């Protein structure tokens, strides 16, 4: 009796693993964008939590105030990574039915 249920459960787990692998691949190609300083700094991150691009408007570059540029970059990078993580968690949550399974994402 238990063997049939176990086989069915294992097939469901394998299917979920395949769906999650496909979703991770898709998310790697999706991006999120964050800005700071009213758009003076723009950072794009992928679903792999990698920074894809950083764009600076000329007015963001003031040789007399490097600290401000550093702060804007830091804020935009952290926000882009936060949005990327949120996107991944949300999409993976759809596959796991909201279950937070440690180590999967």
UniProtKB/TrEMBL annotation:
GO terms for molecular function: DNA binding. Residues 1-20 are annotated as: Disordered. The keyword DNA-binding applies. It comes from the Bacteria. Gene3D superfamilies: Nucleoid-associated protein YbaB-like domain. HAMAP family: DNA_YbaB_EbfC (MF_00274). NCBIfam families: DNA_YbaB_EbfC. Belongs to the YbaB/EbfC family. This is Nucleoid-associated protein SAMN02745123_01517.
